[in-house]
Amino acid sequence: MPSRFPVHITFTDYDVDELLEIANIMAKNKEYELSKEAIEKLRRRLVATLHDPFRENFSNARFVRNNIEKAIRVQAVRMLRITEPTREDLVTLKYEDFAL
Question: Which of 5, 17, 47, 51, CA to CA, is 20 to 30 A from 63?
Answer without folding.
Answer: 5
